[in-house]
Specification:
Length: 286
């Protein structure tokens, strides 16, 4: 087995990680190739079809910003749905909020969940032990289409991979329409949209799609070093809540102080700054 792992996600650019020893997991599930291995620089790594999904060193920049920012701005999140999220790191962050009554984590590949429970306890042990977490091993697109999902969620977090293969349906117009139907009246949905430096069209196209379905739409930024390309775009939408206003940011800052959250990336200052877009990213916003 090679002592290095090379990820070729963007045309003309690749990143190489040095493995620390042999892979912990190297197998193929019904849906994809799965690898888990340790590295001296990024901690433990999970890859799916040779694409890095999470590393224990920098997952905080991703999972914390997809959860705490919308939860604190909304102010009354009680039920959360996670699309994908098989590593359970996002569920871990959401469940840090004591007011949340239930988190439905909908992951299509049970093998990812089983392996994450075993090998990524550092980022999901709290979620695994929490009775408020309900894990569904099925297609999130189908889950959202059921009557039981209608107006059920205050927050939907789409922790989706890149728009290829089985995940392609999670980037279509019908998916966004189902998300809209599944949100409570003031509900918010957030999505990852890759790194605009290498994936500009994905951000622009998603914002156009969301604007056709939702009254309020926007983008904020985070940085996850392993997701090479600099800033990562996180898009948000709602028909009843406008995120990023001075009033909501101020309320989120006060809520954070009372929530006593332990974070490694998120701070109230980062929250406010996340809405500040470089000029070149502003030009990608339709």
């Amino acid at each position: 087995m090679a002592k290095t792992f090379t990820e070729k996600l963007h045309r003309g650019y690749a990143q190489l990680l040095t493995r620390a020893g042999e892979p912990i997991v190297s197998e193929r599930s019904e849906f994809q190739a799965i690898e888990v291995f340790d590295t001296p620089s990024n901690g433990r790594v999970l890859t799916l079809d040779n694409i890095v999904q999470i590393t224990t060193r920098d997952e905080c920049g991703y999972s914390e910003m997809l959860t705490h920012l919308p939860i604190l701005e909304h102010g009354a999140v009680r039920r959360v749905m996670i699309v994908g999220g098989g590593d359970l790191a996002i569920a871990e962050e959401a469940l840090k909020h004591k007011a949340i009554k239930r988190v439905d984590n909908v992951e299509i590949d049970p093998a990812v969940i089983d392996l994450a429970k075993k090998h990524f306890a550092a980022v999901n042990a709290g979620a695994v032990k929490d009775k408020r977490l309900k894990i569904h091993t099925e297609d999130a697109f189908v889950f959202l289409g059921r009557k039981t999902a209608k107006a059920a969620f205050d927050l939907i977090i789409a922790d989706r991979p890149d728009p290829v293969g089985p995940a392609e349906v999670l980037f279509g117009d019908t998916f966004y329409a189902r998300v809209a139907e599944a949100l409570a009246p003031k509900g918010i949905a957030v999505f990852q949209n890759g790194v605009p430096f290498y994936q500009p069209e994905e951000l622009t196209e998603t914002l156009k799609q969301l604007s056709a379905v939702f009254k309020h739409v926007g983008v904020y930024l985070t940085v996850v070093p392993t997701y090479v390309g600099g800033f990562m775009a996180l898009t948000w939408c709602s028909n009843g809540t406008a995120m990023g206003t001075p009033r909501r940011i101020k309320a989120a800052q006060a809520a954070f102080a009372g929530a006593k959250l332990k974070t490694d990336y998120y701070t109230p200052e980062i929250h406010a700054a996340a809405y500040a877009l470089p000029a070149w990213i502003k030009r990608l916003v339709p």
